[in-house]
Amino acid sequence: MTILERLLSLGESAERAVLFTVLEGDAAGAKLLALESGETIGDAPAGLADHTGDLLRRSRNRLLELDGSRVFCEVYGPPSRLAVYGAVDTAESLCRAAKLLGWTTIVADARAKFATAERMPSADRLVVEWPEEAFAEIEPDHATAVVVLTHDDKFDVPALKAALDSEAFYIGALGSRRNQERRRERLLEAGIEEDALSRIAGPCGLDIGADSNEETAVSILAEALAARAGREGGPLRTAKQRIHVEVE
After folding, report:
1. Sheet-wide strand order for 62-66
2. Among candidate residues 182, 132, 129, 125, the one with its CA nearest the CA of residue 152
3. Residue 155: is its pLDDT beyond 70?
4. Span 164-176, mean pLDDT?
5. What is the topology classification, in CATH, of domain 81-229?
6. pLDDT tier at 244, thresholds 50, 70, 90
7. If we measure between CA atoms, which residue out of 117, 154, 109 comes closest to residue 133?
8. What is the mean predicted confidence (pLDDT) over 54-74?
């Protein structure tokens, strides 16, 4: 099977892969398609595949500088996912904004009267389950951002515990600083290690003075994007890194 044929098959299989193209040096023009599963196709140096995992987790094309040669890396795979627990108004705003990013949106809640298509029209999928069952069904992976919007320990604690057991690239929890501290204590009581709690962004979102549900959604998604890219989320005018494609 050729690289092109395998690339075309990714759309049906929902597999993730990176296409490496050597731009300079003796191997200029050589390509290597490296799948998340470990499969590789192509004539570029096999060692390029070692970068596949990191590139897939950042979910963005990059330009790498390796051994004096520049390599362009194109990331392929299904869209990132947003998994929200708590079918409140902010959940619909989050889903609507995430759809503009091309993400797949999921809203879960144990309360069937809240998790409805009428209330959550921007959700691609609704899951009416308690947190443990909901996250077992959703299976958050490294391409999933999780946001917990409930303010009730019986939902918050198991939802965040399940998210922490996953590879989710972002875990956000809405609520005041006082609520975050109470939630932290409950998670410690539930057996979560203190080091693991640093993965939770709470209160979630960037400090943009958000007031409405829509502004709150922008704040949270901006923080999630920054987390995935390994950025701080501050003003571009003070950023030390390149604005767009990075060379590493």
Report:
1. 40-42, 31-35, 17-22, 69-76, 62-66
2. 182
3. yes
4. 93
5. Rossmann fold (3.40.50)
6. low
7. 109
8. 89
Sign of CA dihedral 86, 81, 12, 166: negative
Half-sphere exposure of 158 (CA within 13 A, CB side): 15
In the chain, where are the structural domains located? 3-76, 81-229
- Residue 112 in contact with residue 127, Cβ under 8 Å? no
Using a 10 angstrom Cβ sphere, with 0-12 exposed, 13-18 middle and 19 or more buried, the burial of residue 23 is middle
pLDDT score for 72: 95
Model pLDDT, residue 92 = 98
Q: Which helix (H) or strand (E) holds 73?
A: strand 69-76
Q: For residue 140, name the pLDDT band (cuts at 50, 70, 90).
A: very high
Q: Cα–Cα distance between 88 and 146 in angstroms, integer?
A: 15
> 3-class DSSP state for residue 84?
strand
